[in-house]
Structures are given as structure tokens and as C-alpha cells.
Amino acid sequence: PVRILAQQQYPRCRLGRFLARSLDIALCSLLFTFITKIIGLLNAAQGGISVAVERQCVLLAALLLANAFCLTTPGKAVFGLHLETSKGGKPGFLDALRREWQVLLYGCGLLIPVCSQICQWISYRQCANGAVSRWDEESPLRYTVRDNKKLRYAAFAAIYAAMLVAMLCLTDLDLPYAPYGPAYRCGVCRQL
Description:
9 helices, 5% strand
């Protein structure tokens, strides 16, 4: 059973909501990659499944806490999305945390590779048909959309392109003094 609400109560910003989530996940992933490069940890390709699982757990925690504490994310800001209570005020920490957990569980499949794409597709189709998302059904929070300007999509594309370039640079980056870097391997750092 899928409930349909009036447009003013549940805006159908179909693509914007999902692109905003995609941007937030990519930004967290980029930040995680940058931090692990700086402190010299192995990446998921080198560390195997255990490192990949740890990476997903860190990403989930980062997304969960960022949304609960900040009440907005870069993706939401780019697309003009705003969460508020039914009275128009700022949501409480626990309400935001509960909603974000449900988004990550039902809408993003806990970022598990194939499961995530399936959950996002199902959620997108429901939203496109005007249905209320599972995480919005019992939530006291609601979405508001400032506008649907096409410039927001251009900003998204530019940010995503910059992130892809940054990720490519990070994957090729071999920091000289980080553990496992060239200077460490040849003994320079071990002597300091």
C-alpha cells in the first residue's frame, strides 16, 4: 500500500533528491579516501573485503552524523532541499538521526553495492509516482524545495566532475612520507 500526498505536503523533486544523496555519498567517499591517503592507510583495493567493509561502516556513520548534526548536506544545499518540522522549525537531533538511518537502510541499502542500486531505483520510482518514501511515512519531518532551477543541475555536474578529477588524483597520489609511501619504503622516514 503506497500513500500519495498532495504536492504541497510532499514535493516531488524526483531527480534532485536522489542526485543530492549521490553527491553526499560521493563527497564522504572522497573525504574518506583523502584522509586515508594522508595518514597512510591502505585503500580497499589493497586491503581486501575487511577494509571495504570498514570503509562502508565509516561512510555510513559519517553520513548519519553529518545529517543529524548539520541538518543539511552539500547535496541538499545544491538542490535547494530543506528538512523541517511540520510547524516549519528545525528538526530535533533524534528525529533527524532516525530519519537519516531509515534513508540509509531503506533508500540506500546500507551502501551495499548491488543492494544500494536496487533500493535507490525502487525509491526513485516511488517518488516519481508521487508515493511517500518509507522513511517519510512516520517521520515528523518534511521536505521543502526552494526552487527547481536548471542551474542547480549544472552546479551538480560541475561539482561531480571536480570530485571525479580529485578522486583520480588521489588514487595516483603516492605521498612521500606517509607509511607505505616511497620515502618510507626506502628508509627515509624510518630514520627520522
